[in-house]
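Late entry, glutathione complex.
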Amino acid sequence: MRPVLFFLAQSPWSEKARWALDHHNIDYRPVAHLPLVFEPVVRLASRRPFVKPTVPMLVTGWESLTDSGAIARFAERTGRGAPLFPAGFAMEIEEWEETAEGMMSAGRAELMRRLLSSDAALAESVPAPLNRFARPMKPVARLAAKFLGNKHDVEKVSGKQAEATIEAGLAKLRAALKRAGGRHLCGGGFSFADITMAVTLQYVRPHPRVGLGPALTEIWRNPELERSSADLLEWRDQLVDAQR
Ligand SMILES: N[C@@H](CCC(=O)N[C@@H](CS)C(=O)NCC(=O)O)C(=O)O
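Prediction complete; structure with ligand written out below:
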């Protein structure tokens, strides 16, 4: 059976998993997730109906992988192509995943607040083919955004906390790249650590590849960080050009 990947088009967690799957040439059927609307579907698909489901979720004939890191490791085990988890770097990669998880959760908290105050961004967040009815779908998009915010406890993260977490993560990335003296975080070559940290820069400036509309681009961007992180954005853009 061709595995099915439930994903959220604008989510860096989903991009992290898709990058690893594509790197390893895994053939999968992508299914765009609709928060709130698809909640029962992904809950059932997760095969753990009493656990809060998240996407990306890869459903194979025998298991449901409900974490981007687990999906990347599945791709590494079953796919082709250069390894993304070089020997001897497992702990280091896990540490980068933890750093990125904190940054992305912080970024999401800020993003959800901005999304709820932008009608234009809400309309753009309705995925195809439903976006043909973007206007009537807007109240659903608003409900879905509120649902997502509650589900992921975004109220517990203040603006200040979010900013500090993202800035600390970016500083750590800058220092590590400097130490490594190059483009890659682990072992001198492209690895899942690079992917994991590259996608966090979406909260600074989304890469055009993500295909966000103008209003969504505006709420994802952080103009201040964009100015102070030009070096990291350049690193991310070069990595995407070379490896995505
Ligand atoms: N640790 C998980 C976290 C994934 C996650 O937080 N996904 C959120 C992204 S906003 C999600 O599933 N949102 C859609 C939903 O909850 O319905 C991973 O790495 O895959």
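The beta strands are 4-7, 29-32, 57-59, 64-65. Will revisit in the morning.
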